[in-house]
Design a protein that fits this description.
oxidoreductase; alpha/beta; VOC_core; Glyoxalase/bleomycin resistance protein/dioxygenase; Glyas_Fos-R_dOase_dom; 8 strands; globular
C-alpha cells in the first residue's frame, strides 16, 4: 500500500483583530491574502511563497499567550529560508518589529525574529554551511 505524504502545513494563530493582523503580515512581512471569511471577518489564510499561515480572531476577552511568555526561547512559528540576510534586510525596510537581531546561533543556524501585533514570535533561519 502506498503511504500518503504530507505536502505542507499551515499553522493557525489566534489574534485579537484579524483584519489588523492580516494587514501587518501583508505590509511588514510580505504575505498576501485573497479574502476574509465571516461577517464580520474572523478568519484569513495568508501566503508567502509556498507557505501558509492562518489567522483566526479569538473570542472577545480571550487572553492570547505567545509561546515566549511561557518559554522565553521559543517561537510560535519558525520559517526556514534560503537567504536570511536578504529577508532580514527586507523586513527592516518594511518596518517589521524585529525582536532579536540577525546573528549566528551555536546550533549552526543564522537567524532573527520578529513579533506580530499579538506578540507572537516568528523565527527565520538559514542553516550555516558546514566546513569540511
Amino acid at each position: 500500500m502506498k503511504q500518503a505524504r504530507l505536502t505542507s502545513s499551515a499553522p493557525v494563530l489566534l489574534v485579537r483583530d484579524v483584519v489588523a493582523a492580516a494587514n501587518y503580515y501583508r505590509g511588514a512581512l510580505g504575505f498576501v491574502y485573497e479574502r476574509f471569511w465571516g461577517e464580520p471577518p474572523h478568519f484569513v489564510i495568508l501566503k508567502r511563497d509556498h507557505l501558509h499561515v492562518m489567522l483566526d480572531e479569538a473570542p472577545r476577552g480571550h487572553v492570547i499567550v505567545p509561546n515566549w511568555q511561557i518559554d522565553p526561547q521559543i517561537w510560535n512559528i519558525y520559517f526556514w529560508v534560503d537567504d536570511v540576510d536578504a529577508l532580514y534586510a527586507e523586513y527592516r525596510q518594511r518596518g517589521a518589529k524585529i525582536d532579536y537581531e540577525l546573528h549566528d546561533k551555536p546550533y549552526d543556524v543564522r537567524e532573527f525574529g520578529v513579533q506580530d501585533l499579538d506578540g507572537y514570535d516568528l523565527g527565520f533561519g538559514q542553516p550555516k554551511p558546514r566546513s569540511s
